[in-house]
Write a structure and sequence with these properties.
heterodimer, A: about 280 residues, alpha/beta, Rossmann fold, 2 domains, 6-stranded mixed β-sheet, 4-stranded antiparallel β-sheet, 10 helices, globular, B: about 240 residues, mainly alpha
Chain lengths: ~280, ~240
């Protein structure tokens, strides 16, 4: 296990942000924490990166307890925070070179990553002149410069246009192919479903469900199939109960008559599952 | 290169690059120069040494305190401190990097002030030594203000009364015979710095002649350093 939490708790002065969460992440996995604002996603990342001390439980990375080993663990972690916290007066290159120097990582990957995210032309532009999407890309490149084994991404595409989000998704998939373990938080279901090996639903400081996206969908499937059939009135869409004996009969008769146009299982979206489990909307 | 040295030099290098584009801070650098130029050339009836004394005092207090407090508060306000503390840089590296930038720039500007005032001779060494020591004191005070300030605007609210006391009391105490002013002046390390400069400009001095004043400044450095450490341990950065 690369990351492990055991009954991890965090209480701020009056609010219990995390009420004891336990999960583990394998090396090379993309694991997503999905939940609405205030669910405890950012707190979880801050606990795992040693920015906050837990009030209970334990967090481990690479088999080492985070708080007591945070100095040693830092070079192994890359963090992309939700805020675009860059040095606004400096150029993109100055910002990134500064972190290369801090990590003593050399500048070899700087140009390569800027090229991948399509920012090479803006390398000498002051950060304050960049759009939010461009700043998000710079934040991601900054988190990667020292070749971390674990990447923490807090709402990596929040507020981005679809093209910028797609660039970031592409890079994350490439990084994951290279073996980097990624923990990301999001309330974007499509993003999470596309990228994640496993998902945890975080709600009111607790994990309400955890599993592979496909498994979560199957477990919460209404047990129906959707068919498109040709009739005298044109194409008609119908929902049939998968467990009913009449469903098989109907399908075979439509097949014989060559009237069946399409057939697929009805799967709930992750958002629908989230509402079903927690009773709350993802927002 | 040793990793601490590498990290500190990276922070220092970044601060220098950023300073070149930071109008808010550059203004503070030019004010003492403008002040000394004005009093040296436009008000020739001023007592000898007043322009350079006041210019240097303004420089070490305003630049020494304002610059580190603003740099620290800005990192907090813009949340760049969070990511800096996730890197191999520790709080001490950040303090040293920002403090070094301030210290080096004070020495450079003070060199220009001395040139403008036309000072020369052996007393220059004493003036530069005293300036270096009082700068360290000012930088620690500025860092303390930076720690207390959640954002850049607060550095003015918290710091300005302190800056004004440290600049005005030494100068006003020489003009006022009020006991309260003398007591206040005795508590300000900047008063002793002001005395060193007055003496050094009036006559040729040896280091021994200003040892009591230097001692008070060094003692003040230790006091404010311990206050800074205590505050950091209690509050964090």
């Amino acid at each position: 296990m690369l990351i492990r939490t055991d009954n991890l708790k965090k209480k701020y002065s009056s609010k219990e942000a995390l009420k004891g969460i336990s999960f583990s992440i394998e090396a090379g996995e993309i694991f997503s924490l999905l939940g609405p604002n205030g669910a405890g996603k950012t707190t979880t990342i801050k606990l795992l990166t040693g920015q906050l001390k837990p009030t209970g439980g334990r967090a481990e990375i690479m088999g080492r307890e985070v708080i007591s080993n945070r100095q040693n663990l830092r070079p192994h972690m890359g963090v992309m925070p939700e805020e675009t916290n860059l040095y606004e007066r400096l150029t993109v290159r100055d910002n990134l070179e500064f972190f290369c120097r801090l990590y003593d990582s050399g500048y070899k990957r700087l140009e390569e990553y800027l090229k991948i995210v399509g920012m090479l032309a803006e390398a000498d532009t002051p950060v304050k002149r960049l759009s939010r999407g461009m700043k998000q890309k710079v934040l991601l490149v900054r988190a990667l410069l020292h070749d971390p084994e674990v990447l923490f991404l807090d709402e990596p595409t929040s507020g981005l246009d679809p093209a910028s989000a797609a660039d970031i998704h592409g890079l994350l998939e490439k990084l994951n192919e290279e073996g980097i373990t990624i923990l990301l938080t999001s309330h974007d279901m499509e993003e999470v479903e596309r990228l994640s090996d496993r998902i945890a639903f975080l709600h009111n400081g607790r994990i309400s469900a955890l599993g592979r996206p496909k498994a979560l969908k199957l477990n919460h499937s209404p047990g129906q199939i959707e068919v498109l059939v040709e009739t005298s009135d044109g194409l008609v869409e119908r929902r049939l109960d998968m467990n009913s004996p009449s469903t098989a009969e109907k399908i075979s008769s439509w097949l014989e008559e060559s009237r069946l146009v399409s057939i697929h299982s009805c799967e709930p979206t992750l958002a629908e599952i989230f509402v079903e489990i927690t009773g709350s909307e993802l927002r | 290169m040793n990793s601490r040295l590498r990290i500190i030099s990276a922070i220092l290098f970044k601060e220098f690059k950023d300073l070149k584009k930071n109008i808010n801070l550059l203004v503070i650098y030019f004010l003492p120069v403008l002040f000394t130029l004005t009093f040296t050339y436009l008000v020739p009836d001023m007592p000898r040494g007043f322009a350079i004394n006041s210019g240097l005092l303004f420089l070490v207090v305003m630049m020494g305190m304002y610059v580190p407090s603003m740099l620290i508060a800005e990192e907090k306000e813009k949340k760049t401190l969070e990511v800096l503390l996730l890197s191999p840089a520790g709080a001490a590296d950040i303090f040293i990097g920002k403090g070094l930038l301030t210290f080096i720039s004070i020495l450079i500007v003070s060199f220009f002030l001395v040139l403008i005032a036309g000072l020369e001779g052996s007393t220059l060494f004493i003036i530069f030594l005293a300036t270096a020591l009082i700068s360290i004191f000012s930088i620690f005070v500025g860092m303390t203000v930076g720690l207390l300030s959640p954002d850049q605007r607060s550095t003015g609210t918290i710091g300005l009364p302190i800056y004004m006391l440290l600049i005005l009391v030494p100068q006003l105490s020489t003009m006022s015979g009020q006991r309260i002013m003398n007591v206040l002046a005795a508590l300000m390390p900047t008063t002793y710095y002001f005395h060193i400069q007055e003496k050094a400009i009036a006559q040729a001095l040896n280091l021994g002649d200003v040892m009591p004043e230097m001692g008070v400044i060094v003692f003040s450095i230790f006091i404010v350093f311990f206050a800074l450490v205590l505050l950091y341990r209690k509050k964090g950065i």
